[in-house]
Amino acid sequence: MKKAGHAKGYLLVFVLLFVCISCDQKTKKFKPKKPNILLLMSDNQSADHLGCYGDKSIKTPHIDKLAKKGLIFKNAYCSAPSCSPARASMLTGQDIWSLGEAANLWSSFPKVKVYTQLMEASGYHVGIEGKGWGPGDETVTGWEHNPGGVRYDSFEEFFNEAEKGQPWMYWYSSRDPHRPYKKEGWKNSGIDLDSIYVPPYLPDNTDVRKDIADYYNEIQRFDEEVGSYISLLKEMGELENTMIVVCSDNGWQMPRGLANLYDFGTKIPLIISWPEFFPPGREINDFVNIKDFAPTFLELAGIPIPKEMNAQSFVDILTAEKQGIIDPQRDHVIMARERHAYVRKGGLGYPGRAIRTNDYLFIKNYEPKRWPAGDPPLYGDVDAHMLHYEAPTKIYMLKNKNTEDIKPLFDLAFSKRHEYELYKIREDPYQMNNLAEDDQYKSIVQALSNQLNAYLIKTNDSREVGQVFDWDNAPYYKDRDKRPKPSKKAIEVLGLEEEYNYLD
Ligand SMILES: [Ca+2]
User: How far is the CA of 85 from the centre of ligand 1 (A)?
Assistant: First the structure.
């Protein structure tokens, strides 16, 4: 009996030891050394357009390889389908309606906490290269530099300024694949026009395929840059302690893409790799929002998350062992838009709020009498007034808007919309069939509307509570856009005036 007691005792000690070792390993995973963070962001790239997201015609070997060594997020969204607000939300960890003017494009930036400054204050070396937050003017509110950090010409220049062993955060903010695309860039890209997938909300013809291929070519250029950053980190001996994030800020610059609350404007690629601490090779289906970057970076850096950052850290997803759904609570995102470009008389925007779940997209348009893509005949939220020589897809759709084939697509992209829109994702992944008026979906509309409104009210969105912040009259810090001049090609093909005036 005594012997058996001893044996039990040994067993207990052994089990306890084993549990403690496991705890240690777990603790190590949850509390790593402050990581370096390299954020590599493309501009106006929809989620699907990478090899690792299933695109068969684009070649993105560097990003695909990184995805194998990391996590690939299948439900990552921006908080607004527009450069400046999406980036402001990322930096502040807040919804765009909490950021005053910064909910608009070409805005100012509020004097609120951003993760970059908090990281700098805690000892990080912080810098940006390329676009950063914008377009806009941060100086009007007293910012001395871009809220994304001090600007550098190259990573080497930035890195040389870091002290030995100092953790760093660097945001390389590419301008690819923002329009204008390199003229006929597709010709040397190795992209086969016939293999391109043209989504059903766009016409399928050679002009559109070339336009998409030119866009793909820019993504391939971004992929090369991602490859060169990874090589550089390796050379510098920094790769092991660096978390690499590859993403975009919002969707592509195509009709129903950028400046729209459909997936093609809001769903972004997101790949995160740090193999030592984040179990690699996983596909994640949890819904994450670009605003969640702020608390995530802060938590990894061991910095307290300010109360006003209501976004949710996803460190638990990064460090988990499983794939698929990690946190069942992350089953939706809420997104918004106010004014994108200055494309309606008097500077009016097109306000909307949306909730995207696994099964549905529900959109609330607050001003359905306005033109969703901007006033005719320019519809300037798409392809920036056709100022550039190239807007072939849009020009084709406007030119053929009265034909039997194109009219339905033209209406989806440019004509006025209902106050409510509901799309059933599984049956209608391209979100072309609005079910909001269908009696069969009344209860779904009601439930999603209630869920959306409850969040907007809780977060004090002025579209739902009290007086609406005057986004329509907020300054737009680029005067030239208020009198757009279409390209020669657009004037010739569509018979447009030489100049328009949106000021009055
Ligand atoms: Ca953008």
Answer: 9
Question: How far is the centre of ligand 1, averaged over its atoms, from the C-alpha of 177 (Å)?
Answer: 9
d(CA 132, CA 281): 29
- What tens digit of pLDDT does each residue of 123-137 get? 999 999 999 999 999
Q: What percent of the chain has pLDDT over 70?
A: 92
Q: How far is the CA of 173 from the centre of ligand 1 (A)?
A: 10
CA 256–ligand 1 middle distance (angstroms): 14
d(CA 340, CA 381): 7
Question: Burial level of 426, CB count in 10 A (0-12/13-18/19+)?
Answer: exposed
Model pTM score: 0.93
Rg of the chain in Å (alpha carbons): 24
Instruction: Please give the Cα distance from 191 to 183 (Å, whole number).
Output: 15
Q: Do domains 31-327 and 337-494 have the same CATH topology?
A: no
pLDDT at 387: 59
Query: 44 CA distance to ligand 1 centroid (A)?
Result: 4
- 260 neighbors 80 (Cβ within 8 angstroms): no
The domain locations on the chain are: 31-327, 337-494
**Residue 111 CB burial class (10 angstroms; 0-12, 13-18, ≥19):** exposed
What's the gap in Å between 280 CA and the centre of ligand 1?
28
Q: What is the DSSP string of 395-425?
A: HHHHHTTTSTTTHHHHHHHHS---SEEEEET
The single-letter code of the amino acid at 93 is G
Separation of 437 CA from ligand 1 center, angstroms?
Answer: 32
Answer for the pair 265, 250: CB distance below 8 angstroms, yes or no. yes
43 C-alpha vs ligand 1 centroid, how far in Å?
4
| Gap between the Cα atoms of 91 and 112, Å rounded | 10
What φ, ψ does residue 272 adopt, rounded to 5°? -130, 130
CATH for the 31-327 domain, from 3.40.228.10, 3.40.50.10780, 3.40.720.10, 1.20.1530.20: 3.40.720.10
Question: Measured in angstroms, how far is the CA atom of residue 391 from the centroid of ligand 1?
Answer: 17
The answer to whether 286 touches 330, Cβ cutoff 8 Å, is yes
> 337-494 maps to which CATH number?
3.30.1120.10
Q: How far is the CA of 258 from the centre of ligand 1 (A)?
A: 8
Alpha-carbon distance of 396 to 207, in angstroms, equals 8
Which tens digits make up the pLDDT trace of 261-281?
999 999 999 999 999 999 999
CA of 82 to the centre of ligand 1 (A): 6
C-alpha distances out from residue 499 to 484, 488, 502, Å: 6, 11, 10
